[in-house]
Amino acid sequence: MPKQMRLNAFDMNCIGHQSPGLWTHPDDRADTYNTLDYWTDLARTLERGKFDAIFLADVLGIYDVYKGSPATALEHAVQVPVNDPLMVVPAMALVTEHLGFGVTCALSYELPYPFARRMSTLDHLTKGRIGWNIVTGYLDSAARGMGMPRQTAHDDRYDVAEDYMQAAYKLWEASWEDGAVLRDRQGRRFADPSKIHRVLHEGPHFKVDAIHLCEPSPQRTPVLFQAGASRRGRDFAARHAECVFINGPSRKVVAPIVADLRARAAAAGRDPGDLTIFTMMTVIVDTTAKAAQDRYRDYLGYVSEEGALALMSGWTGVDFGAMRPDEVVRFTGQGNAQTSALEAFTTADPGREWTVGEIARHAAIGGRGPVTIGSAAEVAEELRVWVEETGVDGFNLAYALTPGTFADIADLVVPELQTRGLFKHDYAPGTFREKLFGRGARLPDNHPAAAVRRPG
Questions:
Q1: Are strands 394-398 and 276-286 parallel, antiparallel or unpaired?
Q2: What is the pLDDT of residue 345?
Q3: Cβ atoms < 10 Å from Cβ of 47
Q4: How far is CA 90 from the centre of its chain?
Q5: CA-CA distances (angstroms) from residue 178 to 105, 165, 191, 265, 438?
Q6: What domains can you pick out in the chain, each with its CATH number?
Q7: Segment 139-169, tens digit of pLDDT
Q8: Closest by CA position to 41, among listed 404, 423, 424
Q9: If pLDDT is split at 50, 70 and 90, which confidence band does 340 have?
Q10: pTM above 0.85, yes or no
Q11: CA-to-CA separations, 215 to 163, 174, 180, 188, 274, in angstroms, rounded
Q12: With 0-12 CB in 10 A as exposed, 13-18 as middle and 19+ as buried, what is 332?
C-alpha cells in the first residue's frame, strides 16, 4: 500500500505571496484578498479537492533589506499590504466542514494570555479545525514597529519561545479540568469552580497569574505547526511540533533536513513518525505537458525578479541589491534572519553555486521552493518521487495564480493521486488533529503539553 501524502494550500492575506508580480496576470484574483468572497470561494475549492488545510503565512513588518529601503516591496506588493490571517478563518470555516486552518502567528509580539484566548476562540468557531504555525519573527522592521530597536538574536528567540510554550500549554491544558463545564440549566450552574484553576507561571521571559478565559475547546491546544528549519529551530520542532514546514530548492537540500528532524525527535524521546513534515512546492499543471509549459512561459512574462530579490533579502538578511547579478552568494554564518533560507542556496548543496541573478529567477515563481510543471500524471509522479526520496509527508502548495493554481490541483492532480492510491478519497471524521493523525482530539500523552495537565 503506497504512502498517502498530505496537501496544504499555501497562501497569505496579501497580494503578492511567493510569486511577486503575478498578481498582474489577467487570470489572477490575488488583489481581491481583502474581500470575504476571495477566502470563502478559495475554501470551497480546497475542500472540493480534499486539501488537508489552508496554511496561512504571515509576517509583521516590511521587507526593507533590499537596497536598504521598503520601496521595492511597496511598489511590487511584496507581502505588503498584509492583513491579519486570523480574521478570515471563521468565514472559511462557515462554508466548509473538514478543511483545516494552519495560521502563522509570531509569539515575539503578543503575550501568552490574550493569544491563548484567540486560539481557543478559533478552535471553538471552527469546531476543532485550527492549527498554529509557531514562528519567532525575522524582520527588524517588525521589531521596530513593536518599539524594539531590532530583533532579538536568532537563537535567543527560541529561548523565549520555549518559555512561551510552557505558559500557553498551562492555559490551554491545566486551567479548566475535564468536567468543569456543566451547562446545567435546571440547577443554574454553568461551571464547577472547584475544577477551574488559576495558572501560575513564572518563567525567564513570561509571567502569568490568571484563569484561562475560554472554556475548553475541542482540541484545547491547536495543532502545532513549526516553520523554523535552522538548527535551533529543528531542536524546537523536535520537542513541540506535530507538523513541520520546511523548504528548499531541490530534493538534495530537503532530504537531509527531513532526516535530521526525525533524528532530533527521536533524541527528544518522541516517535520520529509523530512529525508530519511538509515541504513547499509550486505546481503548474494542465491537461498536457505542452499546455503546462506554455502556461509557465506565459507566467514568466508577469514576474518581478526585483520583487523576488526583495523577498530573499528579507528572508536572509542579505541585501542582494548591493550585489552584482553574476555574483555568487556565500554563507557567512552571520545574520539574524532566517538562517536556513540562505543555507538552502549555499552550504546545503555544496555542489551547486547560485548567483544573485539565478536566485532572482528561481524565487520569482514559488519563492524558495521548486516549481513542478507538467501534465497531471507528470506532476503526480514528481510528487511521489519527492515523498520517496526525501521522506516528507506532504506539501505546502504555493500558487502561481490564485485561485487558478489551486483549482487546477483540485481538478487535475488530486484525481491522479487518488487513482495511484497516493491521496485520500475523503476526509476522516473529527477535529483537525484527528484527521491528520487518526488519534484523539487532544495532544498525546508523550507531548510536553501533557506534563502540565492535572491528574484525573
A1: parallel
A2: 62
A3: 18
A4: 18
A5: 27, 21, 11, 29, 22
A6: 6-289+369-450 (3.20.20.30)
A7: 888 888 888 888 778 788 899 999 999 999 9
A8: 404
A9: low
A10: yes
A11: 23, 11, 8, 17, 28
A12: exposed
